[in-house]
UniProtKB/TrEMBL annotation:
Source organism (scientific name): Paractinoplanes lichenicola
Statement: the UniProt record of this protein carries the keyword Zinc: no
Protein name: TetR/AcrR family transcriptional regulator
Pfam families associated with the record: TetR_C_11, TetR_N
Keywords, comma-separated and alphabetical: DNA-binding, Transcription, Transcription regulation
């Protein structure tokens, strides 16, 4: 996933890509508290009026940045095995969080979401998209008979990434491939044991 990649779509798309790239740079350098739309406009070579009119606030800019990141995220794999699919998911998260730019960007966005409702909603939407895409590998595993019926795919995917985000934001321990593989293996074992089977009457 590369934030701010310019895609076809004319001048409006090019301006959006430049502004989002500049916003990502500013977040990495100074965090959400120092994110300033005028500075972003300057970095992007865009008019301040255009930036203020389209995004309005720093939270609005973060929301659109997250939407763009969701659009550009790598698609899920289909390796024919739950463990291999979850390992691929964990390693994708691991590579993202250990990338100097992407890891810093996610830390900044998570901090922003902790104190701003609009940023929090945008972050929730971002992960909802990614979890929905990857949870289909759990549905496939149920169909193959690898997992019990009623297994909640979203909960399985959350269980894979949660230990890696804990390392990013709380413990600051290394986020290496070994940690990613352990997270995938633990989630697979728990899913096979029925830990993530929805209880009767559970709401989707």
């Amino acid at each position: 996933m590369t934030v701010g990649t310019i895609r076809p779509g004319g001048r409006t798309a090019r301006v959006r890509a430049a502004v989002l790239e500049a916003a990502a740079d500013a977040l990495v350098e100074g965090g959400f508290d120092r994110l300033d739309l005028a500075d972003v406009a300057r970095r992007a070579g865009a008019g301040k009026t255009t930036v203020y009119r389209r995004w309005g606030t720093a939270a609005g800019l973060v929301a659109d940045l997250l939407a763009d990141m969701a659009e550009q995220s790598s698609p899920r794999t289909d390796l024919g095995s739950l463990l291999e699919d979850l390992r691929a998911n964990a390693r994708l998260v691991q590579r993202t969080l250990t990338d100097p730019r992407q890891g810093a960007l996610f830390r900044a966005v998570i901090v922003a979401a902790a104190g701003d409702a609009r940023a929090a909603e945008a972050l929730h939407r971002f992960y909802a998209v990614r979890i929905a895409e990857w949870s289909s590998c759990v549905d496939d595993a149920v169909a193959r008979g690898e997992l019990p019926g009623g297994t909640d795919g979203a909960e399985v995917i959350r269980a894979v990434s949660a230990p890696l985000y804990y390392r990013l934001m709380i413990s600051k321990e290394p986020i290496d491939e070994a940690a990613a593989d352990r997270a995938a293996e633990a989630a697979t074992a728990a899913a096979r044991a029925g830990v993530f089977v929805r209880s009767a009457g559970a709401v989707e």
